[in-house]
Write a structure and sequence with these properties.
With 299 residues, this protein is α+β, with helices and mostly antiparallel strands. The chain contains nine helices and eight strands. The strands form two sheets. It has a six-stranded mixed β-sheet, with helices on both faces. The chain starts with a helix and ends in an 8-residue tail after the last helix.
Length: 299
């Protein structure tokens, strides 16, 4: 039982990371937007909804989390989590089951399933009620694997709204927080201020080109990033620029910390982008601003 609970906590950690990366306020409503399992007792309307649905059929049940409008307290999304990646479909089905009574009451929450306990080995699916059935929320025709931010959720959640969703740049405060952590990791890796934007740019480009399919082990991650960057420049017919944007493969500290940097950037949807050059450019410009913001000479 203790081991199972430990696994659940790892999934909860990933869920919190994903929510924060899209600007959701993790505090309890009305101050924030996220309601956790143990907090439902103060929200009798939600408890009434969940009494009508459970994981196994009729009877009460409690989802992992619910996103709420902090003013009206209307449910915006119902989230169910599982520790094992191969239970992703079960998690989504259960989230839909929990959300059904909310839909019947006139609300339009998304149903979100998340499964897995590793930062780079988890799955996530999002669906919406289209007036007749639960349908996947997609990007370029493929199910999205991120939690929409509030503005995106409002666009797709309505039964009459679109099911297709393209990534949008997170709020400045979210990017500032993420850039600050990346800046710290680069500083700890001995990367001087002037070189940090280039390192961030190389990692971004490598992730975008490879769609996240790089090996995360320290002995492979930096070389895989450089290889993916080289392919990106070849595809752009500018192979001569490949040497201008690369990471130092001999930097052993960076090789260890790069996994966390990659994880942060993956939360910002870089790996799912197809032709969203505007998004990638805006993201890089923001990180350039923040990663170049430390005083000259800082290490």
């Amino acid at each position: 039982m203790a081991r199972a609970r430990g696994s659940e906590r790892r999934t909860e950690y990933i869920l919190s990371e994903l929510l924060k990366s899209q600007g959701w306020d993790l505090r309890r409503p009305p101050h924030g937007e996220v309601l956790q399992q143990h907090e439902y007792r103060s929200f009798p309307e939600l408890l009434e909804f969940f009494k009508k649905a459970s994981k196994t059929g009729p009877g009460p049940g409690i989802p992992e989390a619910v996103l709420l409008d902090r003013t009206s307290l209307a449910p915006l999304a119902v989230i169910e989590a599982k520790a094992e990646v191969d239970e992703l479909g079960v998690a989504l089905n259960e989230a839909q089951g929990y959300a059904n009574p909310c839909v019947e009451a006139g609300h339009s929450p998304l149903a979100i399933g998340i499964a897995g306990t590793e930062e780079d080995e988890y799955g996530l699916l999002v669906s919406k009620w289209n007036g007749a059935r639960w349908a996947p929320v997609t990007y370029e025709g493929r199910p999205i694997n991120w939690i929409p931010n509030r503005a995106d959720l409002d666009r797709v959640a309505s039964p009459s709204g679109p099911s297709e969703l393209r990534p949008t740049v997170p709020p400045p405060e979210v990017l500032a927080e993420r850039a600050d952590e990346i800046n710290r990791l680069l500083r700890e890796s001995g990367i001087i201020d002037q070189m940090r934007p280039g390192v961030v740019g190389a990692i971004m480009l490598g992730l975008w080109q490879s769609k996240g399919k790089i090996r995360k082990e320290p002995e492979h991650i930096l070389s895989d990033i450089n290889r993916a960057c080289g392919k990106a420049f070849e595809k752009a017919k500018k192979p001569e620029l490949a040497e201008s944007l690369r990471v130092d493969e001999a930097n052993e500290t960076l090789a260890v910390k790069a996994r966390r940097i990659v994880s942060i950037l993956e939360r910002l949807n870089i790996t799912v982008l197809t032709a969203e050059h505007d998004y990638l450019g805006q993201l890089y410009e923001t990180f350039f601003r923040y990663t170049g913001a430390t005083p000259s000479g800082s290490t």
